[in-house]
Amino acid sequence: MNDLDSVRAALREQPAPEPSRDLLPRILSSRAAGVRLTLPTAIARSAARWRLGALLVAAATLLFWVGTRSPVSREGRGAFDRDLLLGMPFAPLEAIGQEALARVMQPRYPLITALDAGRVHAGKWTYQLQWTTDGAFTSPQGNRTLTIGQGRFDGKPSWIMTETRDLKGATSGAGDTVFVDPGSLRPLRHARSWKQGRSFFVQEFLHDSVSERLHVAGPPSERNFSGNAALPGLKVSPLVVSWSPYWLNALVQALPLERRWRGSVYSVNWISMADRFPAFTPLDLRVTGAERVRVPAGSFDCWKLDVREGPDKFLVWVSKEERWVVMTRHTWSDEAGEWRDEALLAAVAPTPPAP
Amino acid sequence: MSVTALTGTREFSIEALRAGRPDALAALYREHGAALYRLAYRLTGSRHDAEDVVHDMFVGLPEALRRYEERGELAAWLKRVAARVALMRLRSRKRRREVGLDAAEPRTDPSSGTDGIALQTAVDALPDRLRVVLVLKEIEGYSHAEIGDLLGISAVASRVRLNRALRRLRKALEDGR
Questions:
Q1: Which residue, of A159, B52, B69, B131, has the fewest CB within 10 Å?
Q2: Do A192 and A199 form a contact (C-beta atoms < 8 A)?
Q3: d(CA A203, CA A231)
């Protein structure tokens, strides 16, 4: 099957499954329940022109960057990776089966060291989620609720942070919980489930490493993965858990936000999928300004933060007084158009810190 | 205007669909649902995502049809919309890092045989931007001009992506021998 014509022929003969029997009843049930979605029926041509312009600018920038980059700076990046590995306070690596840190990216800003973890307080934040297509069609996507509460882990006090989602049309039944050390804001245990709990992963954090078990339910078949890895950024920075939006609600309460503040922390991805994604990604946070923001929960004077996680970039507005995440916005574009998804604070039930 | 005028005898009319009548939506689903599901499955590589794509599409269809100008085949218009919803899903999934889990699920049908499994594995390994063009051109039969219109790229870019996809497939199959 190695010549192109036979590859083409084989592609056309590849079998594809049929939809499940309950799909039509679910569609009709959603309609009857009042669910309405905006479909992308057209492409904004201006977006294509904008992308072409952006591409040209990026190419020019790349040429300039390559032309001005010195060999010394490239050595510096390699030295950073070596320093990072040498700085790990565990030995030997194979003793706990940790995997090599193949692709730890470099943070843009200094790792955060000034953290007032005592400012973090319990509460419950509900966000309205919405997508906007090509700047024109806004479609509500449901709600996300983040809860920070007091609990115990391994006999010691801890924060229990949970995320629940009520997304329109969603069938995955996802849930997410993490236990967090109240002194350092480092995660202790992170569990996430989806497909009505049949698929899940659990990450257990030790002082210097993290282990993970990942179970993927069928159809068509069940699969299991596991992995271990050494934690980067030890001693100098709190660690946050990626893919779990509540980390931001806790972290921003403890950060010394002010004009021109910036700092980085590491987030943890799937350890057992390290061949597909970097196990750790820097989260780079920078205060870019101050704005008054109106959301369903009210109007707030906010710090505006630019947040980058690897190639992803999004904006976060944090209320100056309460340190609540008031709004987040992620904008991106692809072949089908330009998209923006936002989370707007709709309700909040904070529990003030004990006197 | 009735769909009958465009595509032959049908159990529904555009007006009934635009009004969101469940019987019209069900009739449309029975006629096109499976084909749209297969398209979504081939684009997203996941049964779960394909079901979500078809669900979202039919839920939003009555309102979307108000922008349908009835100048071409309804089936072709439905496929274009399904492809766009699937692309949205791909982007959303990638951003949430859920692609790894779906990719971890073997998609292959044991009845496909060894060559079929190898081919499906190679297709799954393609980057989304290449796989989308491959599916639309080689399986769905779109022209490069149509793919260009659909994806917002030029026909030349579509041709280049298809060429790259096919070469990668061939190399993957050769390496697997």
A1: B69
A2: no
A3: 12
Q: How far is the first Cα of chain B from the last one, in angstroms, to the nearest whole number?
A: 55
Q: B105 and A223: CB-CB below 8 Å?
A: yes
Residue in chain B closest to A38 (alpha carbons) equals B60
Q: Does domain B1-105 have CATH number 1.10.1740.10?
A: yes
- Supply the Cα-derived Rg of chain A in whole angstroms: 23
Answer whether A202's CB lies under 8 Å from A189's CB: yes
- Measured between CA atoms, the residue of chain A closest to residue B33 is A19
Tokens 């555009």 sit on residue: B14
| pTM (whole model) above 0.90 | no
| Residue B65, min C-alpha distance to chain A (Å) | 9
Q: CB B54 to CB A35 under 8 A?
A: no
Residues A102, A122: Cα–Cα separation, whole Å: 37
Residues of chain B with CATH 1.10.1740.10: 1-105
- Whether the link from the prior residue into A353 is cis, omega within 30° of 0, is no
- pLDDT value at A8 more than 50: yes
What digits encode the pLDDT tens for the residues B38-81?
A: 999 888 888 888 888 899 899 889 988 887 776 777 888 888 88
Of A24, A144, A345, whose CA–CA distance to B26 is shortest?
A: A24
| Best mutation target, A7, A132, A171, A242, to test chain B (most B CBs within 10 A) | A7
Determine which of A133-142, B80-89, B106-115, B116-125 has the lowest per-residue pLDDT on average.
Answer: B106-115
pLDDT confidence tier of residue A176, bands split at 50, 70 and 90: confident
Confidence of residue A62 (pLDDT cuts 50, 70, 90): low
Integer Cα distance of B135 and B40 in angstroms: 10
Which residues in chain A have Cβ-Cβ distances shorter than 8 Å to B68?
41
Please state which CATH number belongs to domain B112-177: 1.10.10.10
Domain ranges of chain A: 87-348
Mutate to test the interface with A, among B56, B115, B128, B139 (most CBs of A within 10 A): B56
pLDDT of residue A158: 93
| Mean pLDDT of all residues in A284-310 | 93
Answer for the pair B66, B15: CB distance below 8 angstroms, yes or no.
no
- What is the mean pLDDT of the segment spanning A286-313? 91
For the CA atoms of A106, A109, A114, A118, what is the dihedral angle to 10 degrees?
-80
